[in-house]
Amino acid sequence: MGKQRYATDKRRRRCRFCREKRKEIDYKDVATLQKCTTAQGKIFSRRRSRNCARHQRMLKQAIKRARFLALLPYVG
């Protein structure tokens, strides 16, 4: 019984971008970027967003680009 629970728990923890098999994260996709930020505009940590390291770095860069172009708010 313990093994079965671990298997489902491991499947849930996968990165959302890995599950969708996305190679890149687009800074113009504001809806996706907003899911990874708080109401104040802060970026969720890897642990909270459950992203892998590679996609978290890409997400961070995309959010910063979107902020620069005023698609997303800066931390306020």
Keywords:
76 residues; mainly alpha; 30s Ribosomal Protein S18; 0% strand
User: What is the level 1 CATH name?
Assistant: Few Secondary Structures
The second-level CATH architecture is: Irregular
The percentage of residues in β strands lies in: under 5%
- Poorly predicted runs of 5 or more residues: none
Distance between the ends: 47 Å
What string, H for helix and E for strand, traces the elements in order? HHHHH
**Helical amount:** 40-55%
Tally of individual domains? 1
Give a brief description.
With 76 residues, the protein is mainly α. Helices cover 54% and strands 0% of the residues. The chain contains 5 helices and no strands.
Task: Describe this structure as you would to a colleague.
With 76 residues, the protein is mostly helical. The protein has one domain (2-68): Ribosomal protein S18 (30s Ribosomal Protein S18). It has five helices and no strands. It has helices spanning 2-12, 16-19, 30-35, 46-49, 53-68. The protein is globular and about 50 Å long. The chain starts with a helix and ends in an 8-residue tail after the last helix. The mean pLDDT is 87.
